[in-house]
Amino acid sequence: MGEHGDGPPVVPEARTLRFHELAEAGHRILNPLSEAKLDLLGDVAPPPPAGGHLDLACGKGELLCRWAQRFGVHGTGVDISEVFLADAAARAAELGVAERVRLVQANAATHEAPAAAFDTVSCLGATWIGGGLVGMLALMAPALAPGGTLLVGEPYWHEPPPEDVRSALAQEGDFADLAGTLGRVESAGWELVEMVLADGDDWDRYVASQWRTMSDWLRAHPGDPDAPDFAAWLDEARRAYLAHERRYLGWGVFVLRRP
Ligand SMILES: C[S@@+](CC[C@H](N)C(=O)[O-])C[C@H]1O[C@@H](n2cnc3c(N)ncnc32)[C@H](O)[C@@H]1O
User: What is the per-residue pLDDT across 142-159, written as a single tens digit (0 to 9) for each?
Assistant: First the structure.
């Protein structure tokens, strides 16, 4: 796999995807968003009852499954990972919403959704698929019904990072601070009407719990051909998080409507 342009690959390399599938095997939400804040998102941006919801890069489908259960939405989740989608299907069955959650294995950059068909279109934590925030909004917009709501999860800088930190994280995307993120949203023709931001504890739960999961996997699979690379990635991920990511990088879900 791999579609490469100037930015990060739109489709992750198979080994990168496998690393995430293993490191996040114990997660339900593949972002620094606590379960309480996922529920808060439903409080501040409730979908219409029994409305339609398209979630691009849905991961394990926790947002769709919860909203199907809580609001009766009919959801379509699109993700590239067979492993994450299998967990999403199991979660939908567990919550009794399998009939309202459709899961599609596809590249969200090229997936053709019905036009103007969904009351909510979301992409939490994968804007690189559209080449960044503005490009992702453009990818999401055609599927949104008139008067609908976009939910986009995106990193932002807490404070301007030193150049070496900015370039170390450049592979993840070109982020702005919160005011700059607002500027990007507005320049794309959207109004920011709400947001739910992760805090340091949310980041720690998302990131630090991957260390244990990956460390356990490495101990159990010393002969796996990917083990040396995955051990090196784990070392680097842990170091980078503690050295600068925890300080400089924020993350939030931004709730948008047409003005
Ligand atoms: C940071 S996770 C977020 C998952 C989910 N939105 C959540 O909040 O739990 C990024 C997701 O993007 C998926 N992904 C990466 N590239 C993709 C692509 N081109 N098309 C569809 N899904 C993609 C990954 O498999 C992963 O599930």
Answer: 999 999 999 999 999 999
| Domain architecture of the chain: domains with CATH | 14-257 (3.40.50.150)
Residue 135 Cα to chain centre, angstroms:
15
Give the model's confidence band at 55: pLDDT under 50 very low, under 70 low, under 90 confident, else very high: very high
Residues 84, 234: Cα–Cα separation, whole Å:
20
Ligand 1 near 29 CB (within 6 A): yes
Task: Decide if pLDDT at 1 tops 60.
Answer: no
Q: Looking at residues 199-211, what average pLDDT do you find?
A: 97
Predicted pLDDT of residue 5: 44
Q: Residue 59: CB within 6 Å of ligand 1?
A: yes
Average pLDDT, the chain: 94
C-alpha of residue 166 to centroid of ligand 1, in Å: 23
Say how many C-beta atoms besides its own lie within 10 A of residue 222's C-beta.
Answer: 9
Distance CA 190, CA 257 (A): 6
Atom nearest to 111 CA in ligand 1? 20
Reading the block at residue 114, the tokens are 């019905």
